[in-house]
Design a protein that fits this description.
about 100 residues; Trna Endonuclease, Chain: A, domain 1; 5-stranded mixed sheet; 2 helices; 5 strands; about 30% helix; about 35% strand
């Protein structure tokens, strides 16, 4: 992901994503069945300190993320440095729970 409308803040999604919502629902169902489920956000920017769901862009995705968390899905985010040689994970990023 690359969206950053506020300095230091990465957001997802940058457009409505029915596919993303579908994945959240599926992960939530798997988690309820006892599976360890993680959603990993890879932020392709190194100037980011915090991550948040862009609920103003896709409210349905936001609602499904809350349900998935309640069902036990774990959310983590990492900032990355992108170069011609590849993508390097730099650090884990705090997730804004709003």
């Amino acid at each position: 992901m690359t969206l950053s409308r506020v300095k230091g803040l990465a957001e997802f999604p940058d457009a409505k994503t029915t596919r993303g919502s579908k994945h959240l629902i599926e992960l939530g169902e798997m988690s309820k069945q006892g599976h360890d489920c993680y959603l990993v956000y890879l932020i392709q920017r190194k100037d980011i300190n915090i991550f948040s769901i862009a609920k103003d862009i896709d409210e349905e995705y936001y609602k499904n993320s809350i349900i998935a968390k309640k069902n036990g899905v774990k959310f983590i985010a990492f900032s990355c440095e992108v170069s011609k040689k590849g993508i390097d994970v730099i650090k884990q990023i705090k997730i804004n729970e709003n």
